[in-house]
């Protein structure tokens, strides 16, 4: 290619777009290289629904207030303290100014969804979901003069000393090379490379489903790590949730997630419970269930509810299995009928007073005398018809990534790389050591995308 660009942004999702728009507004000539075809642009961002946002009072669709300490405490709880506090607090503090910036760049918000996502205070929901956000950003980027190449798969970034010399990519059947002044990597994790997942996790990973885009294969990540760019995170740590076992192998998206766990019991293929289904409100606990299911035989679990719980959560994309008796439901799910009936009977006997049941907050309605306990929303499963779902581990994105500083800049053991920045899922492991908090991935991508765009433009100018 003969065109000269100030900044090449690798990736086409939320973080890439925030970086590209910010850099373009600072006067830089920006090229986005998106591996996916245009209809599938946006990476995992097109499957998102909301953005977790600190605010000191009502803000946009958000009610009440959600301060830095509350936000950070929520993050510490789900990560068990495995986070870079400085970068985490940076993301949290800057999230408040991001919401009006998002609106200025075309994003529209709506009131919080109901069901188990009781997030009106903490998370701002996108009107039309992530696909609308992605489309709005592409429209805005176009008006700012950002160029986009689709089906442009980056294969190599040439690192020479402390700078990236060139970027190689394939496009329309040809290999092309550009020499931008600065590079921003926002191309996600490696979760769609199931061979890499299997090397990290072992054979159980062969049974995992990939919730997000099939185009996040970690090609750029691997290329940079092989050249000595500093990494962060554990390859076995990821955002993994329990999803409907009938979901496709790739790209099922957020609609395949099941939100019924708090009102259920969950058993493995031996019809045995294995964890507290009511440990905390769902947005703080849904992301642990992928790993829990991954640890069960054949990496599968089964949700069992009765008719009184059917309307307490957002509807599933696939209807549940339905039977008038637990034995019939067990047969439909290929579970041992006698054992399932025994497990349910023991659970029911352990349930106490349910008069305080409250589906949208911790209610303390718990079991006694059984292990594992159920510490909230514990009601007997007694009212037919009975319903069941199969669960599989659904991986959203991996946490092994590029280590960055507070300016989103990458480096090697010898020091910073002068013209390389990273944003979004490809550097989220800098903040997320384990676990996940609903909407926080979009926070990381927005905050560090804007930082990367600003810093890269400053360098290019």
UniProtKB/TrEMBL annotation:
Domain FAD-dependent oxidoreductase 2 FAD-binding residues, every copy: 6-433
InterPro entries per the UniProt record, alphabetical: CobZ, FAD-dep_OxRdtase_2_FAD-bd, FAD-oxidoreductase_2, FAD/NAD-bd_sf, Succ_DH/fumarate_Rdtase_cat_sf
Keywords recorded for this protein, A-Z: FAD, Flavoprotein, Oxidoreductase
Alphabetized GO MF terms: oxidoreductase activity
Record-listed E.C. numbers: 1.3.5.4
Cofactors required: FAD
UniProt xrefs under NCBIfam families: CobZ_N-term (TIGR02485), PRK08274.1 (NF006130)
PANTHER family: FAD-DEPENDENT OXIDOREDUCTASE 2 FAD BINDING DOMAIN-CONTAINING PROTEIN, FUMARATE REDUCTASE
Name of the protein: Fumarate reductase flavoprotein subunit
Name of the coding gene: ifcA
């Amino acid at each position: 290619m003969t065109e000269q660009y100030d900044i090449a942004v690798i990736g086409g999702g939320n973080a890439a777009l925030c970086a590209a728009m910010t850099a373009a507004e600072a006067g830089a000539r920006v090229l986005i290289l998106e591996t996916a075809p245009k209809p599938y642009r946006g990476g995992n961002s097109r499957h998102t629904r909301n953005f977790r946002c600190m605010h000191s009072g009502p803000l946009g669709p958000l009610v009440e207030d959600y301060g830095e300490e509350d936000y950070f405490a929520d993050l510490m709880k789900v990560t068990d303290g495995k986070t870079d506090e400085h970068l985490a607090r940076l993301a949290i503090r800057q999230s408040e100014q991001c919401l009006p910036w998002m609106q200025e760049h075309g994003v529209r918000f709506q009131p919080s969804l109901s069901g188990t996502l009781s997030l009106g205070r903490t998370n701002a929901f996108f009107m039309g979901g992530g696909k609308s956000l992605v489309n709005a950003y592409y429209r805005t980027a176009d008006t700012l003069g950002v160029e986009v190449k689709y089906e442009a798969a980056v294969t190599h970034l040439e690192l020479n000393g402390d700078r990236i010399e060139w970027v190689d990519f394939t496009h329309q059947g040809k290999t092309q090379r550009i020499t931008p002044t600065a590079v921003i990597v926002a191309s996600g994790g490696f979760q769609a490379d199931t061979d890499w997942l299997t090397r990290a996790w072992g054979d159980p990973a062969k049974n995992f489903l990939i919730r997000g885009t099939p185009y996040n294969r970690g090609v750029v990540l691997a290329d940079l790590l092989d050249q000595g760019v500093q990494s962060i995170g554990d390859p076995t740590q990821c955002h993994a949730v329990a999803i409907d076992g009938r979901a496709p192998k790739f790209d099922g998206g957020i609609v395949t997630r099941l939100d019924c766990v708090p009102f259920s019991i969950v058993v493995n293929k031996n019809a045995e419970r294995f964890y507290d289904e009511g440990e905390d409100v769902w947005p703080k606990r849904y992301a642990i269930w992928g790993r829990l299911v991954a640890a069960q035989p054949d990496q599968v679990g089964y949700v069992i509810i009765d008719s009184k719980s059917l309307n307490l959560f957002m509807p599933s994309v696939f209807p549940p299995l339905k039977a008038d008796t637990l034995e019939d439901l067990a047969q439909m799910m290929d579970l041992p009928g006698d054992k399932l009936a025994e497990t349910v009977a023991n659970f029911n006997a352990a349930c106490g007073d349910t008069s305080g049941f409250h589906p949208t907050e911790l209610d303390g309605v718990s079991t006694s005398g059984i292990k594992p306990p159920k510490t909230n929303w514990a009601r007997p499963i007694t009212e037919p018809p009975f319903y069941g779902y199969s669960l599989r581990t659904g991986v959203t994105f991996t946490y092994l990534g590029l280590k960055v500083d507070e300016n989103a800049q990458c480096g090697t053991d010898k020091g910073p790389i002068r013209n390389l920045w990273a944003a979004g899922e490809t550097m989220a492991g800098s903040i997320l050591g384990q676990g996940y908090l609903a909407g926080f991935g979009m926070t990381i991508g927005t905050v560090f995308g804007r930082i990367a765009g600003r810093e890269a433009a400053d360098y290019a100018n």
